[in-house]
User: Fold this.
Amino acid sequence: MKFNGIIFDLDGVICSTDEYHYLAWKALAEELGIRDFNREDNMKQRGVSRMESLKVVLAKSDRVYTPEQKLELAERKNGMYKKMLNNMSPKDLDDDVLSTLTSLRKMGLKLAIGSSSKNTPAILKQIGLGDFFDAVADGNCITKSKPDPEVFLKAAQMIGLPPQDCLVVEDAYSGIDAGKSGGFTTAGIGTARDYEHTDIRLDKFSDLLKI
Ligand code: B16
Ligand code: MG
Assistant:
């Protein structure tokens, strides 16, 4: 391994909260009378902030909402999403992910989270990784969402390493773009595996041990 640190995206990399995001946005869309919100729309919400995700939903509506109403809608979706998160437990952490993280830690690498989600601390706690990472940079400590590199630069700073010394692991195009523009090498898994800007393609999480 030529890196001294790895920064992991959370949703879609460490665990799968993406389905819950989809279901909660879909429920909100239906409440607003938007019937054709679909999985393709949901793909555009991957990795981007809650308010950017709301724009994807409202693009399908003719109604105009005030900034206050938009905040209320985002809050309403988050309430439904948080209820779904309550069902998560350490069983939602894949064995392949847990054993790989444990091996990487034994190899002496610094391990951090770089997520757009403001629910990151709650999700990590639910899956039993509340105290695992050396640093957690998330939606609560950034002003610009991916594809801006802010969250990854913050995570690198927190573990005391320059971007060239860290690998960013992502499942979303916006996250790969964020990693690249921050000067990081990127590894893509899931949706981002075959993205043209991804540097290293992972078929499964444990492929990280082969780098
Ligand atoms: P929240 P990640 C991202 O997490 C999700 O991929 C994205 O769909 C979501 O809109 C964003 O978090 C904000 O989440 O509403 O919980 O603050 O992939 O960056 O770990
Ligand atoms: Mg993600």
Observations:
- The pocket of 1,6-di-O-phosphono-beta-D-glucopyranose (ligand 1) is lined by residues 9-12, 21, 45-50, 53, 78, 115-119, 139, 172 (CB under 6 Å).
- The mean pLDDT is 97.
